[in-house]
Write a structure and sequence with these properties.
Length: 653
C-alpha cells in the first residue's frame, strides 16, 4: 500500500480505529454464542431467537471488519470497489433483521401471543420483508446509499427509512415490555431496559459521529446483558429433574393470569411417594420424580414442565378453544394415567405409582396464584374415587384447600369472630340467652360459614383450637357481667362431638373456664344428636363429669339423626333443641305436623326442656305456643349478630 499524503495516513488510523470497534463486538458476540452453545441452552424459542440476534451481530461485525480492511484498496481495482458495494449491501440486508428479531424475542419472553388473529404474525413480518426488498433494490435505486465519482460513500434518505422501520419494531417491543412489566421477573425487566438503552445509545452516537462505530459494539454488549439475566435460568431450573421449578411455575402462572392468557394446567400428583421411598430405599423423592419427568419429557417439551412439589409435576398447555382443547387434554391425561397402570423400575426395584391427575383452566377455573397453590399443595382426600379430577371435582378440591388455609390463617391472624343469636322464652317472649356461633372473615375468600368450615376444620385437626377460641370468647363475655345484667340465663356453646371424645377433654374445658372465675351454669354446651351410637358410653361419661361441675347441656339438631331413642335419652341433657327442619316441615305437610307434635310430646314426657330453632314467622310462634314448648330461637327474633349488636338488641327489648 502506498501512502502518498497526510490524508491517507489519517484514513488508515481511522480504519484501524473502526476495526478495533468491530473486533470488540465480534469477540463479545463470540463469547455469548460459545457460552450459550456450551451450556446447551438452545431448546427454548427465546434461546433460539437470542442466538439468532447474536449471529446477526456477528455477521455484521465480520462484514464491517472486511469493509474496513478493503477500504484503502478500493482505489487500486474495481474488484475491490464492487466487493465493497456487495459487502455494504449484505450488511444492510442482515442488519435490517435485527430489530424484527428483537421484537420476536421480547414477544416471546413476555409470552405475548402473536397467533391470534392468525394473520397477525404475517402483518408483523410485513415491514421487515418490505425493508429487505427495499435494500435489495439499492443497486438500481441508490435510495439507501451510493458512491460518488471519487468512490466516496454517501447515505441516502433510504437509510432513514430503514431506521424508522427498526424504530417501529423496537417501540412496539418496548411498549410490550412496559405492558408486561409487573408480570416479568425483575432481572428480565431490567436487562431488557438495559438492552434498549444501550443499543439506542450506540445508534445515536454513531448517527451523530459516523467515525465512532459504536452501534454493533453496543448491541453485542446489550446481548450479554440479556444472556446473563434472561437466558441463564439456573434459578428457575430444578437441578435433579432438569425441568422448571416451583418458583418458575409461580412466576409463569402469575404472568399468564395478568395477561389473561387461557391455559390448561395439568397437575400430576403421586400419592404414594413415601411408600415408594421406603420400598426402593431412595430417600430423595427428586430421584424418584426424575423417572416420571423423563417419561413426561417424551410427551411434551421441557419448557412446559414444572417440578412443583416433592410429589407433584405440573404441565402447562396452551388452550386455543376451550371445548376442543379441554377434550384433548382429558385424552392426554387418560394416556398418562394409563402409563401409571404399569410398573416402573426405580433403582432396579419394580414399583407402581398411585397418581391423581387434576386438570384446570387458567383463568376461568384457576383464578389466582393461590388457587394454583391449593391445587398443588393440598393432599387429595382419601375418599376421592376419581383419579382424574376436573370441573366440580377440581372446584371442590380448590375450595376445600382455600377454606382449610383460611381456617389455619384465621387462627393465627384473628379473622374468627364469635356471633351471638338470642334465644327467647316462649312465655312472654322474654330474653332467655344466646347461642355463640362462629364466623370466619377471610381476606381472600370473604365470609365463610361454619357449615362449610367446621367439617374441614375437624378433618384438618383445627377444631380443638376453634372450640377453645369460642369458649374463651364466651367466658370473657360472661366475665364482663353484661349478659346477667341484661337478663340472660345462659350462653350456649357448640361442641364438636369429635372434640368431646378426645383425651383430656374435660380438663381442657375446666382449664379454660376456671381461668375466668365465672358461674359454670351460665354455659350451656350443645352437642349434636347425629352422633354414632358406638360413642355413647364415652359421651355419657363426659357429659356426666361436666354436669357435675355445674355446666348445662343441650342436645342439638334433634330429629336429624337416626339415633336409638333409648340411648339418646339416657344422656343427661337439660334442653333438647328440635331441629329447624322439623318445624319447617310441620308447616308444609300434615305428616310434618304429626312429627313435630310427637317430638314435643315425647321430649316433654322425658322431662326435658324444649327449644325450637329456625323460628322465622309469627304463625310458627302461634303453632309452638299451642304445642307448649319452652324456648324459641330464629330469625324472627334476630339473626346471629356481633357481641355489640347483641348488647344493643338486648337493651332495646
Ligand atoms: P347449629 O348449632 O344448628 O346452629 C344453628 C344454625 O341455624 C346457625 O347457622 C344459625 O345461623 C341458623 N339459624 C338460626 N335460626 C335460623 C332461622 O330462623 N332461619 C334459618 N334459615 N337459619 C337459622 P350457622 O351459624 O351457619 O351454624 C351452622 C352450624 O355450624 C351450627 O349449627 C353448628 O353445628 C356449627 N357451629 C357454629 N358455630 C360453632 C362453634 O363455635 N363450634 C362448633 N363446634 N360448631 C359450630
Ligand atoms: Ca347449635
Ligand atoms: Ca341446631
Amino acid at each position: 500500500m502506498q501512502l502518498t499524503n497526510h490524508e491517507d495516513v489519517y484514513m488508515t488510523y481511522t480504519n484501524l480505529f473502526h476495526m478495533a470497534f468491530y473486533c470488540a463486538a465480534l469477540l463479545v458476540c463470540i463469547t455469548s454464542i460459545a457460552f450459550t452453545l456450551f451450556q446447551k441452552r438452545t431448546d427454548l424459542t427465546h434461546n433460539k431467537i437470542f442466538l439468532l440476534m447474536n449471529y446477526i451481530v456477528l455477521i455484521n461485525g465480520l462484514t464491517c471488519f472486511l469493509l474496513e480492511s478493503i477500504e484503502p484498496l478500493i482505489h487500486l481495482s474495481y474488484v475491490f470497489y464492487h466487493l465493497r458495494y456487495g459487502l455494504e449491501l449484505f450488511y444492510f440486508i442482515v442488519h435490517s433483521a435485527l430489530a424484527p428479531t428483537l421484537f420476536y424475542y421480547v414477544m416471546n419472553v413476555t409470552r405475548t401471543s402473536l397467533d391470534r388473529p392468525k394473520y397477525l404474525k404475517f402483518i408483523c413480518l410485513f415491514p421487515f420483508i418490505l425493508t429487505e426488498i427495499f435494500v435489495c433494490l439499492n443497486p438500481l435505486t441508490h435510495y439507501v446509499y451510493w458512491y460518488d465519482e471519487n468512490l466516496l460513500f454517501h447515505r441516502n434518505w433510504g437509510e432513514n427509512f430503514i431506521y424508522i422501520i427498526a424504530m417501529i419494531y423496537t417501540s412496539i417491543a418496548f411498549t410490550n415490555l412496559l405492558l408486561s412489566w409487573h408480570a416479568l421477573r425483575r432481572r428480565n425487566r431490567y436487562s431488557m431496559i438495559y438492552f434498549f438503552c444501550l443499543t439506542l445509545f450506540g445508534v445515536i452516537v454513531q448517527f451523530i459521529s459516523i467515525g465512532i462505530k459504536s452501534e454493533l459494539f453496543c448491541e453485542a454488549l446489550a446481548l450479554v446483558g440479556l444472556m446473563i439475566a434472561v437466558e441463564i435460568e439456573d434459578d428457575r431450573i430444578d437441578t435433579e429433574t432438569n425441568v422448571y421449578n416451583r418458583n418458575a411455575l409461580k412466576n409463569d402462572v402469575k404472568h399468564l393470569l395478568m395477561k389473561r392468557h387461557s391455559m390448561n394446567v395439568l397437575c400430576l400428583k403421586i400419592t404414594n411417594i413415601d411408600m415408594i421411598s421406603k420400598n426402593t430405599g431412595v430417600s430423595n423423592s427428586d430421584e424418584i420424580m426424575k423417572e416420571i419427568t423423563d417419561y413426561l419429557k417424551t410427551l411434551v417439551p421441557r419448557q412446559l414442565l414444572y417440578h412443583a412439589d416433592e410429589n407433584t409435576m405440573v404441565l402447562l398447555q396452551r388452550q386455543d378453544s376451550f371445548e376442543k382443547n379441554n377434550f384433548d387434554i382429558i385424552d392426554f391425561a387418560k394416556n398418562i394415567y394409563k402409563r401409571f397402570q404399569d410398573d416402573w423400575i426405580v433403582h432396579g426395584v419394580s414399583i407402581r405409582f398411585t397418581p391423581v391427575i387434576m386438570i384446570g383452566v387458567i383463568p376461568s377455573q384457576i383464578k389466582s396464584l393461590e388457587d394454583l397453590l391449593y391445587m398443588i399443595d393440598s393432599p387429595v382426600p382419601k375418599d376421592f374415587e376419581n383419579k382424574i379430577l376436573l370441573n366440580e371435582d377440581l372446584y371442590f378440591f380448590i375450595r376445600r384447600a382455600a377454606v382449610e388455609s383460611a381456617v389455619s390463617n384465621g387462627l393465627k391472624n384473628g379473622s374468627f369472630e364469635v356471633y351471638y343469636q338470642p334465644t327467647h322464652c316462649l312465655k312472654g317472649l322474654r330474653l332467655h340467652g344466646a347461642e355463640a356461633l362462629i364466623r370466619l372473615h377471610d381476606k381472600k375468600i370473604g365470609v365463610v360459614y361454619p357449615e362449610e368450615f367446621i367439617p374441614i376444620a375437624e378433618q384438618a385437626g383445627y377444631i380443638d383450637d376453634i372450640d377453645d377460641f369460642v369458649l374463651n370468647q364466651v367466658c370473657a363475655f360472661i366475665k364482663t357481667g353484661e349478659p346477667m345484667k341484661l337478663g340472660m340465663d345462659c350462653i350456649n356453646v357448640n361442641l364438636s362431638v369429635l372434640q368431646c371424645m378426645g383425651n383430656g377433654f374435660v380438663n381442657r374445658i375446666l382449664g379454660i373456664v376456671d381461668k375466668y372465675d365465672i358461674p359454670k351454669n351460665f354455659i350451656n354446651f350443645e352437642i349434636t344428636e347425629s352422633v354414632s351410637a358406638s360413642d355413647y358410653e364415652l359421651l355419657a361419661d363426659v357429659i356426666k363429669e361436666l354436669k357435675s361441675n355445674g355446666f348445662l347441656f343441650s342436645m342439638d339438631d334433634y330429629g336429624t339423626g337416626y339415633s336409638n331413642m333409648h340411648t339418646l335419652f339416657s344422656l343427661d341433657f337439660d334442653i333438647v333443641k328440635i331441629d329447624k327442619s322439623i318445624l319447617w316441615d310441620a308447616e308444609n305437610s300434615e305428616i310434618g305436623q304429626i312429627i313435630l307434635e310427637n317430638c314435643v310430646h315425647m321430649i316433654r314426657q322425658m322431662k326435658r326442656k324444649i327449644l325450637v330453632e329456625g323460628v322465622e314467622t309469627q304463625s310458627q310462634i302461634d303453632k309452638l305456643q299451642a304445642l307448649g314448648v319452652d324456648y324459641l330461637q330464629g330469625y324472627f327474633f334476630s339473626k346471629p349478630i356481633t357481641k355489640s349488636a347483641l348488647l344493643k338488641y338486648c337493651e332495646a327489648i
